[in-house]
Design goal:
With 292 residues, the protein is α+β, with helices and mostly antiparallel strands. It has a domain at 97-234: D-amino Acid Aminotransferase, Chain A, domain 1, CATH 3.30.470.20. Helix content is 30%, strand content 26%. The protein has helices at 45-59, 110-119, 159-169, 174-198, 250-258, 268-286; strands at residues 9-10, 14-18, 23-27, 30-33, 36-41, 68-70, 89-92, 96-97, 100-107, 121-122, 125-126, 136-142, 145-146, 155-156, 201-212, 218-221, 230-234.
């Protein structure tokens, strides 16, 4: 009989288990929008997210190490030897996560576009005049935010504020960590966005999370470049001047906005279209057909 394990942390979509010498991240098939967990499950979504993170972690280890140890159930305790975990779990190193969400924007969209229309800036960064919605930015911009607890909203901060924020937690290290986070974030984004473009996907923006290992080195953690943490647009048909169709939850968000009385219950066709989009993104990026 396997020992029952309880998650030490439950997010909207993922659960985290402590197995002593490592952590297990379980990507469920839950889906959230507007900070609410929807009533439907999106079958295979968690496995697609895990497979994508695995692909990107392998692709970027020349830039910096990451926390991935294994996605093989055989490497996990007996509790995880169940069908529901197959393809959905990743064994990762224990890290002390840094209290900053590292957001990078290569295109102007979403809240960034709204802010630019108001005052020509995104998160306090002055941008060139005359940009249109969904335009590619001259250079990717780094717009960090503080991590909020479940149910609260993250708060955008400037790079300077990120130095002060990190300094509070790591006296004497704030500037060094803030600069490293910014530089790693931009380097990761540039490498991956260029690759994705060659595969027909525009990565408009994304967020990374980093932590410290036992030697105090900065390591890439969390998930990486999935449709849950990024905006993916199809390269085909891309044209600035309006919003773009996307490979992520936009489909779900649009339907919920149009159906305010839905009580967060999606119709089957919206679920089917959503999972088809996730699979398409996975297959375009990895060059492999999705099998779980």
């Amino acid at each position: 009989m396997s020992t029952e394990l309880k998650p030490i942390k439950e997010g909207k979509v993922r659960e985290v288990y402590d197995i002593g010498d490592a952590i297990v991240m379980y990507a469920t098939d839950r889906i959230s929008a507007f900070d609410v967990i929807l009533k439907n499950k999106i079958v295979d979504k968690g496995a697609i997210l895990t497979g994508m993170s695995k692909f990107w972690f392998n692709y970027t280890k020349d830039i910096l190490p990451n926390h991935m140890l294994s996605t093989d159930l055989a490497d996990l305790p007996e509790f995880f030897q169940k069908e529901e975990f197959k393809g959905h779990v990743m064994k990762v190193k224990k890290l002390e996560m840094l209290p900053v969400e590292c957001i990078v924007r290569g295109y102007i969209t979403g809240s960034g576009w709204a802010s630019y229309q108001e005052n020509g800036t995104v998160c306090g960064i002055k941008l060139p005049k005359g940009l249109k919605e969904s335009d590619k930015l001259p250079e990717p911009i780094y717009t960090p935010s503080t991590k909020a607890d479940l149910g609260d909203h993250d708060e955008n901060i400037s790079f300077e504020q990120s130095i002060d924020h990190l300094e509070k937690y790591y006296p004497g290290k704030g500037k060094e960590y803030a600069e490293k986070l910014r530089d790693y974030t931009i380097a990761l984004y540039k490498k991956c966005a260029e690759y994705a473009l060659s595969r027909g996907i525009i990565i408009a923006d994304t967020k990374f999370e980093f932590g410290l290992n036992e030697d105090g080195e900065i390591i890439l953690g969390d998930e990486m470049l999935t449709p849950d943490s990024s905006r993916f647009w199809p390269k085909e048909g891309y044209e600035p001047g309006h919003g773009q169709p996307s490979f992520d939850k936009q489909f779900v968000r649009d339907w919920l906005k149009a159906n305010p009385d839905s009580d967060y219950l999606l119709p089957q066709d919206v679920i089917d279209k959503t999972i088809a989009k996730y699979k398409e993104a996975y297959e375009l990026l990895t060059g492999e057909s999705f099998k779980n």
